[in-house]
Predict the structure.
Amino acid sequence: MKKKLILESGEVFHGTGFGANLETDGEVVFNTGMTGYQELISDPSYCGQIVCMTYPLIGNYGINRDDYESIEPAIKGLIVKELCDLPSNFRNQLTLDEFFAKKNLSGISGIDTRRLTRILRSKGVLKGKIVSSDADDSTVIESLKNTTFPTDQVASVSTKTAYASPGRGLKVVLVDFGSKLGILRELTQRDCDVTVVSQDVTAEEILLMNPDGVMLSNGPGDPEDVKGASELINGLLGKVPIFGICLGHQLIALACGAKTFKLKFGHRGGNHPVLDLQKNKVAITSQNHGYAVDQESLKNTDLEETHIALNDRTNEGLKHKIHPCFSVQYHPEASPGPEDANYLFDEFLELMHGFKSQEPRAKNQEYA
């Protein structure tokens, strides 16, 4: 299948299609990971996006049953330099081409991903479309310029029905804004009794479950589009420990009076260094976000900056000065090779144990 990728800025890339033979449009972004394409494809945070992989060879270890981050992928498409059609791995069950065909997803290979990445770094993320080779370029470009993508990505990927992952330890409510299975995995490995709830849950509904802690998950899109999140978080602050990851981190910032902004081309990959300001220690982290917390806007809030990105000095972590609540912008549940950030789940357990041991009258006082 001869295909081409067309950007709203006018650039056209010719290549070969793989997966389903269909046209697809979305926000074109790039990911710098050398591996992890299966996790990426199934990560709900990529809802509505066409992802360009900067590493030149993709698909070399195939698709297996164990590395999914969701049941159904929300990604719109994939762009690669070279697609491997003969993967070699003892866990391999499908090629990337076969998986895309089964899931009715469209991809394109054989294009200059280095050039595309340089365009995205220079111009910022762009709208793009994978189309047949005979499509009229000018018509597609004009269509892209007038295209407005949906803003309800979180609602589209969040669970519609609450479900439980039983354990005998601390009781945690996981609010699913587009949660990766890795977050649930880390909690259940620590024997937490987890209940996963929809993104439109209320604080009252969560408090009726009498949890020991609340986890706010990752998810796609602009945090300002997530209606009701600030009311949810403010209804929980001081009443139960809270841990936010990625979108959950941004939502905590908004609920506490800070602001967020869209990054020029985002952070997406498994090799991002982050400095823990409290421990003066660097972790290599996995990241996937297009928005960040405005550091200047933190000054008149009860939030304290705890982590920063070493590549561009943007915010990567927060801690509430009064209540038991903290968050990070990156993904501690991911394993980009090292597991540097995994300790944050243990800190969440310690926070819950500490809060639980307090006298009830002290729970709404300053948490030390």
The domain at 2-145 is CATH 3.50.30.20 (Glucose Oxidase; domain 1).
